[in-house]
Amino acid sequence: MSLSFDPASIDLPNGHFIGGRLLPAEGRIAMHRPSDGVAYAACPIADAEVVDAAVAAAKAALKTSNWGGVRPRERVNALHRFANHIEANAETLAKLEALSSTRPVGQLVAGDIAVTAEQIRFFAEMADKEGSAVVPTDEASFGMILDEPYGVVGAITPWNFPLSMAGWKLGPALAAGNAVVIKPSEMTPFSTIRLAQLAVEAGLPAGLINVVLGDGQTTGTALTGHADVAKVSFTGSTAAGSAIMANVARTGIKPMTLELGGKSPQIVFADADLDKAAGAIAGSVLANAGQACVAGTRLIVEESVVAALSSAIIDRLRNARPGVTWDAATTYSPAISALQRGRISAIVEAARASGATCATGGSFMDHPGYFYAPTLLTGVDAASPAVTEEIFGPVLTMQTFTSESEALELASHPTYGLAAGLFTRDLTRALRITRALEAGTVWVNRYSRSRDHILPTGGYKRSGIGKDLGREAYHANRRSKSVLIGL
């Protein structure tokens, strides 16, 4: 059976999900489908009173269920049931997300939703395997380091990968014994609400996951600054992350995990497998139309292979075809909004005005939705806005080098250090450059995450603090207490 669907046929769970119940609310933020620009819904805005109710429900759920204090294997089993429900409802989740987001429905079922279930399972298995420790002390005392959950975690997720980003937040927080109040993006909220409903249907205590809809200014500020939110986890722009840090500082002190913006380089040496490199580089720009924080949008290539590599990349970029996200055959995504597409265009035009050349793309695509053509800009320098700014769109810049030191100099960015790519057959060089790159993730002879959730992700510089995924994410949702007993 085809996954393609009529967008008008989807029933939207629009409202706040608090204490295990969907609470309908008046829509205030107009929502448009990225694939065709049609207005289809309005998102409510949770004010401080609604956020208070959600946090109170989370606290009550922790107290009545003793979620953080039960035998850890009970949490493991409950989260596995949750993952089962996610998999069983993959089609429904995919349709809700494809309707409002940039993610094609076919890619959601095969990728995002399957990965979300895997993430829940991965972190579930840490609940009874990672924990407290007895530590060496003198013979007259007994020392322990106890791990405990924080309590209520406030999470904010972005619009580019709504479900899998929710998995990043929910998996480690729940496995570690916390409750969560999560705010999805006001542009893509509906799949997250359904995800929370599935948790209750799977037997997780009502109120353990609460979803509040709204914008950053009102809802996000109320959530991150709430006195009873003990930890904050956010994925989004560097500017928004800075605002969250400032808000938390104004209202108290609490730990934060911030996975923020990026402007990631991909370095290609002449000895690389150029066909493999071209596929990976083009793929990082084509995937979700470049709307990913780790998108490798700065190509840095050795001069002797510029012609061959750029030709292979251009061929792949020109094959992109726009299509609505509710068509199972679609592989190329729209920009999330008219505003975002306009921003992409403005940065490309500014780069052109400063001397860049468009080798391909550089224009809107002939389609009713917010599609921008995959673009390769050459003739850019370090001061070009296309090189300095995170565009969050399908725009690749190309710079050249003749020495390893020059390549590393070009790869360094004054603001970002989220990810980097490196293509070479020389293992010694690969290890040397990997150590020199200032990035939280380095991919060698590939440019994409795998489904090995043990690898943490997070940035250097202003690309964030803390880690998502891996053991690091689990431990970031636990706090430690030192205990010394005199014998």
Give keywords:
single chain; 487 residues; alpha/beta; Aldehyde Dehydrogenase, Chain A, domain 1; Aldehyde Dehydrogenase, Chain A, domain 2; 6-stranded mixed sheet; 22 strands; globular
Describe the structure.
With 487 residues, this protein is an alpha/beta fold. It folds into 2 domains: 7-260 and 464-486, Aldehyde Dehydrogenase, Chain A, domain 1; 265-453, Aldehyde Dehydrogenase, Chain A, domain 2 (3-Layer(aba) Sandwich). Helices cover 38% and strands 20% of the residues. The chain contains 15 helices and 22 strands. Strands 14-15-16-13-12-18-19 form a 7-stranded mixed sheet, sandwiched between helices. The chain has a 6-stranded mixed sheet with strand order 9-8-7-10-11-21, sandwiched between helices. Strand 12 (265-268), helix 9 (274-286) and strand 13 (298-302) form a beta-alpha-beta unit. Helix 3 (90-100) crosses helix 4, helix 3 (90-100) packs antiparallel against helix 6 and helix 9 (274-286) crosses helix 10 (306-317). The radius of gyration is 23 Å and the shape is globular. The N and C termini lie far apart (68 Å).
Chart the SSEs and their pairings.
Elements: E1 15-18, E2 21-24, E3 29-32, E4 39-43, H1 48-65, H2 72-88, H3 90-100, H4 105-124, E5 133-135, E6 141-149, E7 152-156, H5 162-175, E8 179-183, H6 190-201, E9 209-211, H7 216-224, E10 231-235, H8 238-251, E11 256-259, E12 265-268, H9 274-286, E13 298-302, H10 306-317, H11 338-353, E14 357-360, E15 375-378, H12 385-388, E16 395-401, H13 404-411, E17 416-417, E18 419-423, H14 427-436, E19 441-444, E20 460-461, E21 464-465, H15 470-475, E22 478-486
Helix pairs in contact: 1-7, 2-4, 2-6, 3-4, 3-6, 4-5, 7-8, 9-10
